[in-house]
Amino acid sequence: MAEPSEHAAYIRSGHPDARLDHLDGVVLVYQNSLLRRAQATYRLQPLPRWCSADLFEPRRSEARVAVCGGLGPGGAPGTALVVEQLIALGARAIATVGTAATLRTTLSPGDLVIADRALRDEGTSHHYLPPGRYTHSDATLTAHLTEALTVGTDRRTVTGGTWTTDALYRETEAEVAHYAACGLLTADMEAAAVFAVACHRAVPATAGFAVADSLADRRPRTGDHMINSGLDHLLAAALLALTRNGAGSRGHYDGPSSA
């Protein structure tokens, strides 16, 4: 069986400094527009092609979180591959920031959702964990994300479960109604796989979404500015959450990496 450590060894044969264990973690972003804004806001500089995506580190020496993008449309298998590679290179924690569709008419574009669990309606997680209905985010890292989202905004934020599915155009009305009745808030394409890989590798992971469209009332995705600003706020909170999480092992907290 192929191991991600083999990928890391191959990368280090050409880049001996290919390591991420000096950082507090990595944030995965799925929207190219968000990645471009992050490059400008946090003065990110590209790293060599250490993984199957675009990897950036902050220019400021005190910043301790990398950003990974260029994941295309996302999806469980491709995202799991990248998470495996990042962990093999030393990533100590993973946060993902993206958009999701709401299953509730009470959530609007730009509202923020923190996923504490993900329904496993994709295939990838079943190769990592025993049979089960859900995978779960790391409680401590998710608490840091929740706290960070209260900084400097009154943006509506809720916590709950997400439905992770590979079949983007096969989400039926009956499924939407059923999963909403089960208490789930959103539909996404990656969270269950990310949580499963992270659990298998004993690395904390969390996920946050900005609501972009609705499966509850068939409201299509729009260019609502609230979605982009929600993603920006989520990214800032994820950077802060990873820094605070890493500060526990360093014995102190010296401020957010995005400051």
Topology:
Elements: H1 4-14, E1 25-29, H2 32-41, E2 44-46, E3 54-58, E4 65-69, H3 76-88, E5 94-102, E6 112-121, E7 134-136, H4 139-148, E8 157-165, H5 173-181, E9 184-188, H6 191-200, E10 205-214, H7 225-250
Parallel strand pairs: 1-4, 1-5, 5-10, 6-8, 8-9
Antiparallel strand pairs: 2-3, 3-4, 5-9, 6-7, 6-10
Helix pairs in contact: 1-3, 3-6, 4-7
Describe this protein's structure.
- The protein is an alpha/beta fold and 259 residues long.
- The protein has a single domain (4-245), classed as Nucleoside phosphorylase domain (Rossmann fold, 3-Layer(aba) Sandwich).
- It has seven helices and ten strands.
- Strands 5-9-8-6-10 form a five-stranded mixed β-barrel, surrounded by four helices.
- Helix 5 links the parallel strand 8 and strand 9.
- Helix 4 packs across helix 7.
- The radius of gyration is 17 Å and the shape is globular.
- 51% of the residues are buried.
- Mean pLDDT is 91; it is low at 250-259.
CATH class: Alpha Beta
Largest sheet: 5 strands, mixed, barrel
Cα separation of the termini? 42 Å
Give the SSE string. HEHEEEHEEEHEHEHEH
The total of helices stands at 7
Give the spatial strand order of the biggest sheet: 5-9-8-6-10
* CATH fold title: Rossmann fold
Helical amount: 25-40%
CATH fourth-tier homologous superfamily: Nucleoside phosphorylase domain
How many strands appear in the DSSP assignment? 10
Structural class: alpha/beta
| Quaternary state of the chains | single chain
- Beta content: 15-25%
Named at the architecture level, the CATH assignment is 3-Layer(aba) Sandwich
